[in-house]
Each structure stands twice: as structure tokens, then as C-alpha cells.
User: Which sequence fits this backbone?
């Protein structure tokens, strides 16, 4: 259940109540594709850096170790030792990203596994069954994510099929949640709005799926090649068409600036691989822009990544030491950068929530964006 606490313009401050605890929104979900954050980050670390929601990938866990294995181990929460909410994506994005390995039909999608090449079929029912086995808090509907440069006619047909698939997802989840051996009988379902960069298709699709009274609604198929301006234009058109009393989730986004802009347009949930991926390459986020710790100017720098930051890296280690670890290819270097970046994102969301509650979100956003443009 979603409880709207405060609005500041279009920005929303809310609480989302789940069987695994209350999510304070807006929220950034930390991405652990294969039930772990890349960069040797444990679930104990996630607790320490203020993570509210962990996100895992349905397709990847289906391929390895297999969702039946996870179910036999008591579900994803027990398997990875995490007691807070988990969102699983549906595998639909892999339909987009594994374009060379797939064939899309009405019943679902035929893949070749990226791991061993074996044939896999996934449709709405299979995606729901896998996510039920994983026993995540929130399951995402199975959809097709058309390319942002796809022809309009193709996008229209694709979105119509995604709508038909959503009805099948809803029916199958209701069935699974009623079974006695289902681990999480309170699993929630979020639908996904698609339509590439065509406002009319997006709006029509939003109007159709909001009638299904789902637990939440995502905007998918953005941050896949279109410009930031196009993304904001689509959000301006679509978010007002989605229920204000349900969470809105912008999938796969993004940079701190993207998040600030999307919150201003009414988005509640975010996820992105940037903080962990960039951290593993020595790129760290600060309130004064992004730093590349491989740069020679940090060789003798005794300062933490960011003065005043309370993350495990900044509380103990210097830029010079972390740079040395990265250059020496020591895993600790990657780990410290990932921990800092995830803490930075999680803390940014806290600041966003406070600013909305205080009613000064516009001023807060402006100040943050001007800081990000600097280079420390």
C-alpha cells in the first residue's frame, strides 16, 4: 500500500508498505543482478550504507543458479540473507539487450542463454512463476522494451502485445499467490508503460494499464539511447496519466541529475547500475561532480573521496590509498568505490525526501545540479 505524505509541486514524498517492511520514497534501489552487488558488497554492507531495496534480475537468476534452487533455499531473502524489500525485474529488458539471441512471439520470447547457449522460453506466465519462486517483494510484469529508434508502427504493435501480456501476468500472479507452497503469497505486481519516444502511444498505454489497479507502475524503455531531453519530455507526458496514489518507477535511471529531474516530475522509484559499474572503474560521485581516482593528481591526496561523507570508504581511507589499490588491481579498491557510490546515491535520496517534506525541493534541486557541474 502506498501512502502519499507530501507533495511539493509534482515531487512526491511517500511510504510504500510491503510484507518486507516500509519503503520511504523517493527511493533508489541498489542493483544486485545475480543476487549480489558487483564489487564484493555484502548484504551487511547494504544495511550499513542505508539501502532500502535490493533489485535482482529474473533472467540471470533463472539461468544461474536456477529459480528452483532459490525456491528450495527458501527464496531470495533467505538465500542472500537480506530481510528488507527486493524487487525483481521480469526478464523483459533482456529481450531488448539480447536482441541477437531472441525471437519474440505472442506466447512469449525464445532465447538462447548468454551463459551456455541453451534454449530458453519465457512468457508472462513463466516470468511470474520464476519471480514467485524467487519470492521477491515486488515482481515486474513481463514486457517488450522496443528500441527508442524503432518505427512507430512496430512500437504500436509491441505495446499492444505488452498490454495483453500484462493481463496474463496479473492473472498468473493471482493464481500463484493463492497456492499453499508459494513462499511469498503477498508478492506485488508493477505494470510497465512502454511506447519508445512517441507521446501518444505512451499516454494511451498509461491510460489502459492504470485501469488494472496494480500495486505500482513503471515507465520502461527510457535511458536506452534517447537524449535526456526526450526522456524528460516523455515523463512530462506520461507521469500525470499514472495514478498519483501508487508508486511510479523509472526503470534503469540514472545519473544523480536524472534522478533529481525525474523526482521533480513525480517519480518515486529508481534503479541503475551506474554507481556500482562506475565505482568498479574508479569513478566516484561527489556533490562537486564525478572524480576519476586513476588521475595522477590524486597520487598524494590525503583527503577522503568527499569531505564529510560518512560512507565506510570516506570515514577511513584517502584518495591516494584508494588510487593505489585501483592501480594495483586490488579488489578492495573497487569495493570501497562501490560502497561510496551506493552510499552517495542512498544519501542523496534521503536529502531529496527531506527537501520535499520541507517544501523547498525546487531550490534544493537547483543547488545540487549546480554543484554536480563542477569538477573537484
Assistant:
Amino acid at each position: 500500500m502506498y501512502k502519499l505524505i507530501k507533495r511539493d509541486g509534482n515531487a512526491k514524498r511517500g511510504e510504500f508498505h510491503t510484507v518486507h517492511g516500509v519503503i520511504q520514497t523517493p527511493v533508489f534501489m541498489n542493483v544486485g543482478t545475480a543476487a549480489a552487488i558487483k564489487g564484493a558488497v555484502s548484504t551487511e554492507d547494504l544495511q550499513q550504507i542505508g539501502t532500502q531495496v535490493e533489485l535482482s534480475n529474473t533472467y540471470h537468476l533463472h539461468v544461474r543458479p536456477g529459480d528452483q534452487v532459490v525456491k528450495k533455499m527458501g527464496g531470495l531473502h533467505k538465500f542472500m540473507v537480506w530481510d528488507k524489500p527486493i524487487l525483481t525485474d521480469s526478464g523483459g529488458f533482456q529481450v531488448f539487450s539480447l536482441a541477437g539471441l531472441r525471437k519474440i512471439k505472442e506466447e512469449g520470447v525464445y532465447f538462447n542463454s548468454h551463459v551456455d547457449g541453451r534454449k530458453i522460453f519465457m512468457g508472462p506466465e513463466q516470468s511470474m512463476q520464476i519471480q514467485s519462486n524467487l519470492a521477491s517483494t515486488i515482481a515486474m510484469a513481463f514486457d517488450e522494451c522496443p528500441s527508442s529508434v524503432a518505427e512507430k508502427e512496430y512500437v504500436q504493435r509491441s505495446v499492444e502485445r505488452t498490454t495483453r501480456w500484462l493481463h496474463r501476468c496479473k492473472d498468473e500472479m493471482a493464481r500463484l499467490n493463492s497456492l499453499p507452497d508459494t513462499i511469498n503469497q503477498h508478492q506485488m505486481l508493477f505494470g510497465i508503460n512502454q511506447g519508445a519516444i512517441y507521446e501518444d502511444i505512451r499516454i494511451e498505454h498509461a491510460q489502459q494499464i492504470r485501469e488494472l489497479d496494480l500495486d505500482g507502475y513503471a515507465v520502461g524503455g527510457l535511458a536506452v539511447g534517447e537524449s535526456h531531453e526526450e526522456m524528460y519530455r516523455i515523463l512530462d507526458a506520461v507521469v500525470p496519466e499514472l495514478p498519483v496514489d501508487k508508486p511510479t518507477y523509472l526503470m534503469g535511471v540514472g545519473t544523480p541529475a536524472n534522478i533529481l529531474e525525474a523526482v521533480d516530475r513525480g517519480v518515486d522509484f529508481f534503479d541503475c547500475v551506474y554507481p556500482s559499474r562506475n565505482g568498479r572503474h574508479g569513478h566516484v560521485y561527489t556533490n562537486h561532480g564525478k572524480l576519476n581516482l586513476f588521475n595522477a593528481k590524486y597520487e598524494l591526496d590525503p583527503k577522503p573521496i568527499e569531505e564529510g561523507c560518512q560512507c565506510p570508504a570516506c570515514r577511513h581511507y584517502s584518495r591516494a590509498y584508494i588510487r593505489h589499490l585501483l592501480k594495483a588491481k586490488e579488489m578492495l579498491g573497487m569495493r570501497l568505490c562501490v560502497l561510496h557510490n551506493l552510499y552517495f546515491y542512498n544519501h542523496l535520496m534521503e536529502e531529496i525526501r527531506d527537501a520535499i517534506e520541507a517544501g523547498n525541493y525546487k531550490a534544493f534541486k537547483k543547488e545540487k545540479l549546480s554543484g554536480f557541474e563542477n569538477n573537484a
In short: The CA atoms of residues 61 and 84 lie 19 Å apart.
